[in-house]
Design brief:
Elements: H1 8-28, E1 36-38, E2 44-46, H2 47-63, E3 68-71, E4 75-77, E5 82-90, H3 92-97, E6 103-110, E7 113-121, E8 126-131, E9 136-141, E10 144-147, E11 160-162, H4 167-172, H5 175-184, E12 187-189, H6 193-202, E13 207-210, H7 215-227, E14 231-233, E15 246-249, H8 254-261, E16 263-265, E17 273-275, H9 280-283
Parallel strand pairs: 3-5, 11-12, 11-13
Antiparallel strand pairs: 1-2, 3-4, 5-6, 6-7, 7-8, 8-9, 9-10, 13-15, 14-15, 16-17
Helix pairs in contact: 1-2, 6-7
Amino acid sequence: MPRVADHTDDLRLAHVLADDADSLTSARFKALDLHVMSKPDLTPVTDADQAVEEGIRRTLRQTRSRDAVLGEEQGATGHSQRQWIIDPIDGTKNFVRGVPVWATLIALAVDGEVVVGLVSAPLLQRRWWASKGHGAWTGKSLLKATECRVSDVRQLADASLSYSSLLGWEERGQLDDVLALARRVWRTRAYGDFWSYVLLAEGAVDLAAEPDLETYDMAALDVIVREAGGTFSSLDGSPGPWGGSAVASNGHLHEAALAFLGSSRDETDPDEPARAEGSVSRLRGRRPSHELPPV
């Protein structure tokens, strides 16, 4: 069996980076002078987002000067097989509106595989972290942690599905597909952002999906879900956080979810998105959804 590289020092550094980020974001949360701007894609960014990323980059320049960095606010810098991937505040809209569900996401990818991931949500007083081959954990610190394990739910009818919003699915032309899946599961909730995926890693949620994400939105979540025993892929089934979308599951339900949400394009008609085998477009013309056999 090949030996798993030890990334203990990298994980410890991620915790140090998160300590600094938490101090800054907590101090700026609900600050009367919080400066909120709109980026070109019309999503909000605050002075806290920018300061956190700059602070993380400054520490990495001092401690991992040869490593590359990809961050939401400053893009990609450096060239290395090792790349730190940073989302300074995942859930900026919550942060701006005073909703305490937001987090800093820190990950390390080596040769295109995420090997360390950490999610720190200071207002929830929780962290989740993982390193390849060493499991996923949650708690307030490395010394006060419990292991994360995904659920053992094996039927869609018993599953809990979480997502961020329906608008993204509608813009992608897959609103009917996600609604078809929602009708087949036991429960749906829009926990949103990082929250959906760490709940999945803990076994509280069985499926999570979003149609349009950036690598920095997913990298830390990918390794946490995998090390908790789950599966993380894009909508086309490609593993990892590189495909611009996310489907995460406890593993047992992954193929069933992809049957509804999985996407590929019909090569004969590049303007028409092809539907996966279980999607609602394939169900039309068969029989009403309430008559469909359980998955």
